[in-house]
Write a structure and sequence with these properties.
alpha+beta; 2 domains; four-stranded antiparallel β-sheet; OB fold (Dihydrolipoamide Acetyltransferase, E2P); globular
């Protein structure tokens, strides 16, 4: 069963501009790298980003989230893959979790849709959800913080 999930991860990696994916499921950690040792010139990266126009909401900066995390001992729950974030199993259903909810290891937190595959994301820690960092239906990147959790 885990081999099928690993094949999905490899497929997602091959069909995206992400270079590396690091996931943990069923007690195993997998790191898949498209090409090792890629160097990007900062000037060419600047030119690429300046020509892109986006209607998406800005993603909170990593440094601001890191500052908030250091202040109150919260930890980040990161996105294991790029895709679309959904807080509930269907549009009319209640969200999996809300701010202030207590979760246990293995509880469902959200769904990330990648390549038309709905991937249910489970908590790897027990604790209290302090903050939801992304909006329902928004695009998320690999390793983007999704939630802040206060571990118990």
């Amino acid at each position: 069963m885990w081999q099928d999930k690993l094949k999905e991860v490899i497929y997602i990696l091959e069909n995206s501009n992400v270079n590396e994916i690091d996931v943990t499921f069923w007690g195993r950690r997998f790191r898949v790298v498209k090409s090792a040792g890629v160097n990007i010139n900062s000037d060419s990266k600047l030119n690429q980003t300046s020509s892109v126009v986006s209607n998406e909401k800005p993603i909170p900066s990593q440094s601001k989230i890191a500052e908030d995390t250091k202040k109150d001992n919260s930890e980040e729950i990161l996105s294991p893959m790029p895709g679309t974030f959904y807080s509930s199993p269907s549009p009319e259903a209640a969200p999996f979790i809300k701010e202030g909810d207590v979760v246990s290891k293995g509880d469902s937190l959200c769904i990330i849709e990648a390549m038309k595959i709905m991937n249910e994301i489970e908590s790897e820690k027990s604790g209290t959800i302090k903050k939801l960092l992304v909006d329902d239906g928004s695009a998320v990147d690999y390793n983007q913080p999704l939630f802040l959790i206060d571990p118990s």
